[in-house]
Amino acid sequence: xxxxxxxxxxxxxSALALWQAHHxxxxxxxxxxxxxxxxxxxxxxxxxxxxxxxxxxxxxxTEELETMLRxxxxxxxxxxxxxxxxxxxxxxxxIAFTEREAAHDVVLSMNPSIRLGQSAPLRIGTSSTRxxxxxxxxxxxxxxxxxRGNLQTRLExxxxxxxxxxxxxxxxxxxxxxEAYIVEHLDLQAYVPAVGQGxxxxxxxxxxxxNIREAIRAACNHAASESCIVAERSLLAMLDGxxxxxxxxxxxxxxxxxxxxxxxLSLSGDQKIESSGIGAEPKSxxxxxxxxxxxxxxxxxxxxxxxQLASQS
Length: 313
Ligand SMILES: NCc1[nH]cc(CCC(=O)O)c1CC(=O)O
What we know:
By secondary structure, the protein is α/β, with parallel strands linked by helices. The chain has helices at about 15-30, 45, 50-55, 65-70, 130-140, 150-160, 170-175, 210-220, 225-240, 280-295, 300-310; strands at about 5-10, 35-40, 75-80, 95, 105-110, 125, 145, 165-170, 180-185, 200-205, 245-255, 255-265, 270-280. Helix 1 packs across helix 8 (about 210-220). It is built from eleven helices and 13 strands. Bound molecules: the ligand NCc1[nH]cc(CCC(=O)O)c1CC(=O)O. The site of ligand PBG has 9 residues, from strand 8 and helix 7. Belongs to the HMBS family. Monomer. This is Hydroxymethylbilane synthase. Keywords: Porphyrin biosynthesis, Transferase.
């Protein structure tokens, strides 16, 4: 047991991020370590009047924590795996992924009888291009309303009537005890979540002592979740995706084999490219499915999407 290890965990300071940081802390404590939190307000948290796709730069939630990792001001940083850019600097590796929470999206509303499948139009709050594209594709009768801010702010907006319903990740809603507002659980197959959704990733500096690094990994990493998320992230990297484009991807591990289903939706919802693959090695499954999507025109579609997003700002 590593006795004197007090781990400084860098985190964003939203309630969800702090929950996740304490979750990591508890895993470390179970393994005999202690922890403290170093919480910061990132650019992504401060700029709330523009959509994430318009802020543009990848990593608006991660850059400042990375600077602190390099400076040795924190030992590790925790991130929602889905908020991470698809590629990271070589000196700042991801060393663990926590056991993934149920990865699907949910609909929240103050009106319990609301359903996405209803024909009466709804104003749906979301800040994600993937969810917008999904709505346009599957439920064109509804209107997407821009909804940034932390989960508590968004719930307030819902209560104020700024929208009729919101689309969110179940994981965050569950962690924030907001399940009472869930009116619908969306099917994982029909409505595939974002890459990494539901898991917490731990990043460190490559200069962190290797014994400490190993102890943190042993305490926090969940092997099956890691395999799945590595497959999903390899796919995203090959597509040059990121959290601001409407790419979806979800892998599950069945009898030692990774089953990955992923795709890209056009913003208008009228084009959908999708594919799936099975294999034992995470990166090759990710690359295999990405290659298949590229054959079907994913890169051209993503190029058009980026131009559209840039012109909307
Ligand atoms: N982009 C914001 C974000 N990042 C992680 C989660 C939820 C928790 C998770 O996926 O682990 C959320 C909220 C949401 O999309 O509803």
